[in-house]
């Protein structure tokens, strides 16, 4: 996996967004804004990219995109439930029609037996639909986990837009 793969995936997503006249919003935790960077590296991204929320702390997740405290307390920040609320909150707070969210343990520290390093939860929300979520387990160092997460999240957008 490399930066060229990410750019190609971002171009594909931009094309699908343009076809539908949609805008994307991203909510990122462990990837720290990498989705926003990879999309805005491309000319014309302002037509299809509403922006990003970098919600690294639990408080930011609550304040910026409306993740409920009870969800954080019950499931933890790295959970499908939080990923769903992150994506849904972003669609509700912007003019974007589709959102992606990423929350995980990039490492090298912070992992537990239940939530090991490399565990990343994803959410995708399309306006007027229930959010979809999944969990992936990536191998590699911190940057490799984060890059794989960005790629996977963007592929998830492409998959949902191609339906």
From TrEMBL:
It comes from the Bacteria. Residues 8-157 form the CinA C-terminal domain. SUPFAM superfamilies: CinA-like. It holds the Pfam family CinA. Transmembrane segments: none annotated. NCBIfam families: PncC_domain (TIGR00199). This is Damage-inducible protein CinA.
């Amino acid at each position: 996996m490399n930066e060229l793969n990410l750019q190609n995936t971002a171009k594909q997503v931009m094309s699908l967004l343009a076809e539908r006249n949609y805008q994307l919003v991203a909510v990122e935790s462990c990837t720290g804004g990498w989705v926003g960077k990879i999309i805005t590296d491309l000319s014309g991204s302002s037509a299809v990219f509403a922006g990003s929320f970098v919600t690294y702390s639990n408080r930011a997740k609550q304040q910026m995109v409306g993740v409920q405290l009870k969800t954080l307390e019950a499931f933890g920040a790295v959970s499908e439930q939080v990923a769903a609320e992150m994506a849904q909150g972003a669609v509700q707070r912007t003019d974007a029609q589709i959102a992606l969210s990423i929350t995980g343990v990039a490492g090298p520290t912070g992992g537990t037996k239940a939530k090991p390093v490399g565990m990343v939860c994803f959410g995708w929300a399309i306006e007027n639909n229930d959010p979809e979520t999944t969990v992936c387990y990536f191998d590699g160092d911190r940057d490799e986990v984060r890059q794989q997460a960005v790629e996977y999240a963007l592929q998830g957008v492409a998959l949902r837009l191609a339906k």
